[in-house]
Sequence to fold (120 residues):
Amino acid sequence: MKQPMRRYRSLRRGLVAWGLCAMALAQTGDALDVAQERSRIAQARTLYEQRFTQAEQACYQRFAVFDCLHQARKERRLSLDELRRQDIVLNELERKRNAAAALERIQRNVTQQEAATPTR
Fold:
């Protein structure tokens, strides 16, 4: 049972590193493919759920089932919380991009209206 938990830890560390990179990208405004990142997060979520199912099954083979299940659920919760945080970062990035695009459209419309209006 210790081996799957170690895998969770290493994956979680990788996700934390990715999350920090994503936040830096969001702050600098560099291009980030949101759809691709959402797909990656969904794949990671599926992987965590599969690993949790395997860990849960392994727990039922042990003597201390409830403690093992508690630990497996804790690892799953931490991993899924990290993915949720990454979802939130992506949502914020998308909102900022949409707001910037809306402001640009408004500014373009105002400029066009000013150009179309005759001055006296």
